[in-house]
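User: Hey, my collaborator sent me this sequence without any context and asked if I could get a structure. I don't really work with proteins. Can you help?
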Amino acid sequence: AVLGIEVEVITSERKILLSVDREILVGRLDATQGIFPELDLTADGALEHGVSRRHARIYSRDGKCYVEDLNSSNHTLLNGERLIAHLPYAFRNEDILSFGTLETKVHIYTN
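Assistant: No problem. I've predicted the 3D structure and written it out in structure-token form, which is a compact way to encode the shape of the chain:
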């Protein structure tokens, strides 16, 4: 089973450890609109990199991790391949997920 994921932001070298018990919203904070992403990339230059407020979601199901683009303005890429919005894509340990032009490497922890 998947215990959690660590998202490493390549440009800033920031590492964020997240539980996959529930869905992870990826984006940037907007308190006025009530958007509080579990993976908030504001500190990593999200705005300049074209990260939407509600950009993508990450979740685990049946021992696999999935990413789904939420019809973001600047797209989500998995290892350089652009994702079709609202379709789940399975990703593996050490894959590269790009939100807009912000690249991250994902480490998956399993037991």
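In plain terms: The CA atoms of residues 8 and 15 lie 4 Å apart. You can pass these tokens on to your collaborator as they are.
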